[in-house]
Amino acid sequence: MPSGAMPFREAIRLAVEALRAHKLRSFLTLLGVIFGVMTVVAVAAVIEGMNVYVGKTMEAEFGANTVILDRYGIVLGLDDWLRVQKNRPITMDDYRDLRERASLAQEMGIRLEQSIPYLRHGGAELVNVSVIGYSPSIPAMGAGNISVEEGRFIIESEEESRANVVFVGYKIREKLFGGKNPVGNEIRIQGEPFRIIGVSKELGAFLGNDRDTFIVMPPSSHLRMFGPRQSLAIVLQPKPGVTLPALEDQVRGIMRARHHLRPDQRDDFGFIGADALKDLWGSLTGMIAVVALGVVSISLVVGGIVIMNIMMVAVTERTREIGIRMSLGARRRDILSQFLVESSLLSGAGGLIGLAVAWGGLAIAAQFGLPFVMPIWAVALALAVSVSVGLTFGIYPAYRAASLDPVAALRAE
């Protein structure tokens, strides 16, 4: 043994040999670290994937530069829900007044939604079908998530004439028309005939909600069919150079005046926008991340304690080996570095296994529609933390090994 410090490569070789000699024990020792790394990587990947997916979906549904005036707005909790039940409906008179007075709006349109229990055609049936009223201007604003696969969307003349025309979701074509192009065919909605003018591309589910079983008709037809007392949602787009908050402030002033609200009274309407919903989603995922961090921290601490105990057992079992190495010239720092490298490798291996398990599980989940994006920072952080756990919890056993008296160690059985 050379008089200088033991080379790092030699320390790694000795550590690997020690771990290979006790494969099962080494693996069992790693379980806490494996679970911790698997959890942090999986949670980070799912949250990152969902953030991208939710962001794109929100922008497609609400538009990147639009805001929706709605009777309820964003409702958080039971108290909010109970309060907004008293809000006044938003009416066609409100809409007409906004069209005249909201000078900061470039464009606006109506959104209505009801549901019907079933829809039948040619012996086939779909249940829980959404019936939506969309102004023709809404897709032009980049809102409504309208993607035409066949035919076309509703036009202004059909809105003005209350035409019995519909634009249908992907599942209407697949389930009721056997996948054939239904454009030009008639379908009966609550006994009234409507001509199909277009079919949407497949949108898929969003957070478990079906987005392909729907029918869109002109708002005028929707109000005629489901009654004029429905509360409208009004989609608004600001003029170039006008911010969404500025448009909201102007619309808020108009609506408060129309609803005769005093300065000390709350708004009896709300605004919904992609940015607000993404912020809400970010708060939710932030809470999930905090909970996951707590679980991961406990798991890694438990894993670290297990590693420390196993390394203490290893020191006891290898006392004579340590004495022989010291008698052959190994310094205390050589013994210290060997056991530190061993505990770090042990924990690092757990990190790699946890990463592999997380990746495999996410790949399987992706086949069932779960979006994920594997962030590089999460991978690097998980591996760095796993090695740090081994290093931290390996200090005491390594110190004990390096502190052994060579003569006493040689006498150990």
Topology, please?
Elements: H1 8-21, H2 23-62, E1 67-70, H3 77-84, H4 92-101, E2 105-121, E3 124-134, H5 137-140, E4 148-151, H6 156-160, E5 165-168, H7 170-176, E6 186-189, E7 192-200, E8 214-217, H8 219-226, E9 233-238, H9 244-258, E10 270-273, H10 274-317, H11 319-327, H12 332-366, H13 376-402, H14 406-411
Parallel strand pairs: 3-8, 5-7
Antiparallel strand pairs: 1-9, 1-10, 2-3, 2-9, 4-7, 5-8, 6-7
Helix pairs in contact: 1-12, 2-10, 2-12, 2-13, 4-9, 10-12, 10-13, 12-13
Largest sheet: 10 strands, mixed
Q: Gyration radius, to the nearest Å?
A: 33 Å
List low-pLDDT spans: 1-6
Q: Which class of secondary structure composition applies to the elements?
A: alpha+beta
Order of helices and strands: HHEHHEEHEHEHEEEHEHEHHHHH
Instruction: State the separation between the terminal residues, measured CA to CA.
Output: 24 Å
Number of helices: 14
**Share of β-strand residues:** 15-25%
- How many distinct domains? 2
The beta-strand count equals 10
Principal-axes shape call: elongated
Helical amount: 55-70%
| Overall pLDDT score | 85
Q: What is this entry, summarized?
A:
The protein is α+β, with helices and mostly antiparallel strands and 413 residues long.
Q: Can you offer a commentary on this structure?
A:
The structure is a single chain. The protein is of the alpha+beta class and 413 residues long. The chain has two domains: 8-57 and 279-411, no CATH class; 88-268, no CATH class. The chain is built from 14 helices and ten strands. The protein has helices at 8-21, 23-62, 77-84, 92-101, 137-140, 156-160, 170-176, 219-226, 244-258, 274-317, 319-327, 332-366, 376-402, 406-411, and strands at 67-70, 105-121, 124-134, 148-151, 165-168, 186-189, 192-200, 214-217, 233-238, 270-273. Strands 1, 2, 3, 4, 5, 6, 7, 8, 9 and 10 form a ten-stranded mixed beta sheet that branches. Helix 1 crosses helix 12 and helix 12 runs antiparallel to helix 13 (376-402). The two termini are 24 Å apart. The model is unreliable at 1-6 (pLDDT under 50).
